[in-house]
Amino acid sequence: MNIHEYQAKELLAEHGIAVPKGIAAMTVEEAVAAAKQLPGPLYVVKAQIHAGGRGKGKFKELDANAKGGVRLAQSIDEVEHAAKEMLGNTLVTAQTGDEGKQVNRLYVTDGVDIAHEYYLSLLVDRASGQVAMVVSTEGGMDIEAVAHDTPEKIHTITIDPAQGFMPHHGRAVAFALELSGDTNKQCQKLAGQLYEAFMALDVEMLEINPLVETKDGDLLVLDTKMSFDGNALYRHKNVEAMRDETEEDPAEVEASEYDLAYIKLDGNIGCMVNGAGLAMATMDIIKLNGAFPANFLDVGGGATKEKVTAAFKIILKDDAVEGILVNIFGGIMKCDIIADGIVSAAKDVNLSVPLVVRLEGTNVEKGKEILENSGLPIVSADDLGDAARKIVAEVKKAA
Ligand code: ADP
Ligand code: MG
């Protein structure tokens, strides 16, 4: 789960980490009121969307010369003007895709006198089973280009979670960032605090870009992105409460209400599968047969009729879907019960695209019989390869 910049900064501040003062706003009036509570005279008004690249982004509704989603403002009037231009409009950045994201929240924050912009992120490195702290002296809006053109300017310091953060890790980070004197000391402390916050909150990825050194030599977190391990959210009610469903794919939100693991993809074959491993294999074999999956969907081990119906509806809401492949292994749940669920769900949703079903496991013969006698144009398949070939062929035939 992702959260907004202002929420991430709240969490970091709770861990004693220095962030500029700021206040979130949902309306122009709130943005003005927020600015009045800040010392001024320099403010920054920042669009709050779950995507980076806001500074270089463009608003669809404004002309091409208009500024992006991070605006410096020299007065309360300029804050008001920026808020009016941003709220309700659609910001397109390198990370939003062409459709962009509507800006519904702003963050009005202190303007900072920047001496240098650094990059610092923390993530779970699955290869080493450790936490990686990735840092660079070349922070700011072009970190992707730095990684591509001058990878030697990016340094990784790994921390073994069994051992925890040690003073030498802090020194390595400060050294990689080429800091000296008091700023170097601040950096060592900050790296430790960030690691503690990362672990305590079950963060999956924490990116600070930029981390800035001010003209006074202080280190400040100027921008941050945080995403969390969904499986650990139950331990952090305060983080869970920060979820902003308007930022998420509506189908994915609906799926989570039914406890379905659903991720939308770009293809045209809807998949309904039980078990993540089988779902991955199904997607692979669809690709092998020359088509692309429209989604990943794991209905879970105990796929009830209600779940199957909800899954069908979610898949069919996607206009790109031209056929559905159901691939279910009846282990805990018997095949005849699953077949009943599929038939009644298909009738419920007035299925309008080809449907291929592959069932395997307990009571498979009974299940196939139910599908055959349903009167619905369901194509039954014998194994995974057969199922993939059939759905690809059916979709081609229908087109
Ligand atoms: P994004 O990464 O989405 O473009 P940032 O918050 O990183 O958004 O802002 C982009 C740039 O705007 C930063 O690299 C920094 O130069 C400038 N900036 C952001 N916040 C402030 C601030 N509070 N004071 C001064 N400059 C800022
Ligand atoms: Mg940034």
From TrEMBL:
Q: What does the record give under GO molecular function?
A: ligase activity
EC numbers listed for it are: 6.2.1.5
Q: Which residues bind ATP?
A: K46, G53, R54, G55, V112, E117
Q: Which domain of life is it from?
A: Bacteria
For the ATP-grasp domain, which residue ranges apply? 9-55
Q: Which positions does UniProt annotate for Mg(2+) binding?
A: N209, D223
Q: What is the free-text note on the cofactor? A: Binds 1 Mg(2+) ion per subunit.
Name the positions where substrate binds. N274, G331, I332, M333
Which Pfam families has this protein been placed in? ATP-grasp_2 (PF08442), Ligase_CoA (PF00549)
Q: Which family does it belong to?
A: Belongs to the succinate/malate CoA ligase beta subunit family.
Assembly, in brief, is: Heterotetramer of two alpha and two beta subunits.
Q: HAMAP family given for it?
A: Succ_CoA_beta (MF_00558)
What is this protein's record name?
Answer: Succinate--CoA ligase [ADP-forming] subunit beta
Its taxonomic placement starts with: Bacteria, Pseudomonadati, Pseudomonadota, Alphaproteobacteria, Sphingomonadales
State the encoding gene: sucC
